[in-house]
Predict the 3D structure of the following.
Amino acid sequence: MSLDNTSQPSVKYCADKMNAKYIHGRPEPELVPSRYALKVGAIDVLVVSDGVLSLPGAMLGHNVDPAVRAAWLEDMFLPPDVLEWALNVVVVRSGGRTILIDAGMGAEFPDLPRAGRTVQRLEAAGIDLASVTDVVLTHMHMDHVGGLLVDGVRDRLRPDLRIHVAAAETKFWESPDFSHVSMPPGFPDALRRTAKRFLHEYQSQLRTFEEKHEVAPGVLVTRTGGHTPGHSVVRLASGSDRLTFAGDAVFQVGFEHPDWYNGFEHDPEEAARVRVRLLRELAANREPLVATHLSFPSVCHVAVDGDVFRWVPAVWDY
Ligand SMILES: [Zn+2]
């Protein structure tokens, strides 16, 4: 079974009507790559790009001297003010189940028009929404749940869809604490509104877990906390192969500066501890890593570099 099925994309629906172009009623194939398939033992994995988010550079380290941050950006050949953050979701097939891990931005924040393409790109990859048996949410920020709120999506999902999320996450969003974040204006309200709407629309399909839950054979979701209280990572294991999807526990800058606070972290001190623990573990066991906001397709390894870490992108092996 392969997830990289490019034959006959479904054309009946296209949630991204604003961005998709049509030829004879079919979505025009995009010239940019938006999916990357790999195997973890017997588990099929597909990394799908939801697009990119244009966000202020200051958000990647709001506890840092601006001059130090500016120097890092320059060293990385990145612009000083606005960064394009990748936004990746993952589809996993194991034990007859098709699991979508996070759902992208959807149409929740019109100021970020280059994101929100998950549904369109799943279709282009031959993945019908009705085939998804489970959704795993690393957390409930709008760039991770928004795709489920796009018009018409709920009706196309199976009525018995199970959405797995940490109990601490649903509880947090009943009365979320934004006192330690550093976000651009408009974001806290949009995040609150989106999480509330998501809880309302999908309440009956939520399957909460406390610390960990095996969604399918070799697909283990584990709560880390930090970024949000219910933030979770997904560990894949089959035979001797492993892969971790780290959600928002690791950002690009986090390898070299794991102690820089990301503006979206609700408990930045704990988020930094989670990041260091995870990066240390992945450096020691040499397992591959995929994360939401690492440059697509984001498959990489972690090396120790003195007191910090080094990002080692995987080779494109097609
Ligand atoms: Zn995120």
User: Anything to note?
Assistant: Residues 268-285 form the longest helix (18 residues).
